[in-house]
Amino acid sequence: MQNQIGAPKQKLSFSDPKVRAWLFQIITIVAVISLGWYLFDNTQTNLQHRGITSGFDFLERSAGFGIAQHLIDYTESDSYARVFVIGLLNTLLVTVIGVVLATLLGFIIGVARLSPNWMINKLATVYVEVFRNIPPLLQILFWYFAVFLTMPGPRNSHNFGDTFFVSSRGLNMPAALAADGFWPFMVSMVVAIVAIVLMARWANKRFEATGVPFHKFWVGLALLVVIPALCALIFGAPLRWEMPRLQGFNFVDGWVLIPELLALTLALTVYTAAFIAEIVRSGIMSVSHGQTEAARSLGLRPGPTLRKVIIPQALRVIIPPLTSQYLNLAKNSSLAAGIGYPEMVSLFAGTVLNQTGQAIEVIAITMSVYLAISISISLLMNWYNKRIALIER
Amino acid sequence: MKVLKSTLAIVTAAAVLGVSGFAQAGATLDAVQKKGFVQCGVSDGLPGFSVPDATGKILGIDADVCRAVAAAIFGDATKVKFSQLNAKERFTALQSGEIDILSRNTTMTSSRDAGMGLKFPGFITYYDGVGFLVNNKLGVKSAKELDGATICIQAGTTTELNVSDYFRANNLKYTPITFDTSDESAKSLESGRCDVLTSDKSQLYAQRSKLASPKDYVVLPETISKEPLGPVVRNGDDEWLAIVRWVGYAMLNAEEAGITSKNVEEQAKSTKNPDVARLLGADGEYGKDLKVKKDWVVQIVKQVGNYGEVFERNLGKNTPLEIDRGLNALWTNGGIQYAPPVR
């Protein structure tokens, strides 16, 4: 400290931009922290004063209500913490299925919009314009109330070969249960995948050395079918099927996709795919036509031109906005509360909040969940984006 | 948009709780007198309890409880503003101070009375219980035959818990489908998504009256739980709690004493019965103790009616609901509505 007093006066002067910059940063940090502390402290005091229980003890209490769809075992005597996990899994289920289907559908529609075929081209345009311009909640309500709930009841369901049944209770299908040959079958699958990887490596090496192509796809498919099939012949079928059957009010046994899940997934897929289609189209159009011409003049047919030349370059343009669409889909899944699909918002921020009355804790947890899901998607997509980025030599 | 709205309401309420000041005894009455009206939380549309008519006026027994409170405080039953809330929004709205009274067919339970920052004054607007509404086609005669049924329930209600208890106790299986609003539940029953709609019995009658063909549906005889429905106030304001409690009791006492909206003014002037004189403010200062108008009961009965009048007007034989007084008859008539005396 002593030698600072002797230091030139200017160093601590307000006119020094460095000092000013530091000062303002410190003021900002102090302001943010004290505002946060004020909110926290005031909330605590108010909660205590009004006799509202706070804290997270409620998570261990037993929930006592039923849930329509749970991916893990659940009974009414299980805890609110387990209800939370069920809500989270239901949200993730919709998100994952939605992302996969929307990407597939979006790519198909996007490529179709660039098709030289007038019919395909116009159909894709109509699809995009219709579905991206209707709010997602309306689409969800439409699929749920106007499509799935107008199906006949379980006793007059649409019957597809006594195996699949479509009714207002959803899609009932046979359940796959593990049979004697299950574990040998799984082992054979692993063997098949290893064999395919080895085969692909060998084929790539040979291609680079000699330039002779190898039918990687067909041989790979053959390996994938033949090895597990042999295994199933030796050890018996890996799965047995449990057929849905009508008993009392409803179908019992088998698996069921509830209409809430179907409506939500379908609506989100169809909605998001319209945006993805436009992203894909813009990505493809960003690759200059010279690339196509160059590929064609090298003798590549249209299919390989698209797969090996256009798409890899287009992906660099496609991935960042695609990430945003995935995030939107994950967040839009919370609209399911409108049709009673038991996901995070409807189950946890709805029923649990109301049964416990602990709004602040429940909303904080729910918000953190969406933050965590979104950040995970972002990180994953950024990593992928970096991997496919143009490597300049 | 309902979903968005309710989420927004909850988040705002949580935020308000973060920045608002302390609740103090007497604070609610002061605030109400300052702003000049009672802010009352009612349901999002339940015939007989609180439902908007063609002009947007909220009708029903729950709405009338709030009107009676306004009549006692201001001498004017119209000084009420209503907030329509779904089951999920109701408690946060009260906790955060958005409303002064929650009069929204809410079941009194111990966990709601303690630990949630709420208090039930103890006046029960309507003694109810959970029942089942099913389609005639199913041919079900008793709730015990509902094994494997799919059941529509309104989210965030005690019904969710009581149904689960009943099916567990009777070793029956069921699939619950929960909706935010009672309209969505009713639509799902009509479309066949569920076999059964379950709710408080009074609500089932109300729901049935709204269906396209009410005659095709029947309410099963079982009542599987106790659902005493009553108004709720914030914890920590005993003065306000006492006002709401005694406004309710005053309506019951008025019915018991035979005071109706037609004869109340005459009774107030000429009664010889000391009990009636005390109730109507001709004798004593019971209104002043409660910090309401001296002639509070006269105003309540004149402008809103006694309990029996309110019940008959909203739920009784001449309404589409056609509900019997049953448990809600006065104790003198074989019911369990019993009010402590005003003295």
UniProtKB/TrEMBL annotation, chain A:
Membrane-protein topology: Multi-pass membrane protein
Listed InterPro entries: AA_ABC_transptr_permease_3TM, ArtM/GltK/GlnP/TcyL/YhdX-like, MetI-like, MetI-like_sf
Location in or out of the cell: Cell inner membrane; Cell membrane
PROSITE patterns membership: ABC_TM1
Keyword DNA repair: no
Domain of life: Bacteria
UniProt cross-references to Gene3D superfamilies, sorted A to Z: MetI-like
Membrane-spanning parts: 21-40, 83-109, 130-151, 182-203, 215-235, 255-277, 335-353, 359-384
GO molecular function: transmembrane transporter activity
ABC transmembrane type-1 domain residues: 88-381
GO cellular component terms attached to this protein's record: ATP-binding cassette (ABC) transporter complex
Record keywords, A-Z: Amino-acid transport, Cell membrane, Membrane, Transmembrane, Transmembrane helix, Transport
Family note: Belongs to the binding-protein-dependent transport system permease family. HisMQ subfamily.
Protein name per UniProt: Amino acid ABC transporter membrane protein 1, PAAT family
Name of the coding gene: glnM_2
Automatic annotation (TrEMBL), chain B:
UniProt keyword tRNA processing present: no
GO BP annotation list: amino acid transport
Keyword Repeat applies: no
SUPFAM superfamilies: Periplasmic binding protein-like II
SMART domains: PBPb (SM00062)
Family: Belongs to the bacterial solute-binding protein 3 family.
Protein name per UniProt: Amino acid ABC transporter substrate-binding protein, PAAT family
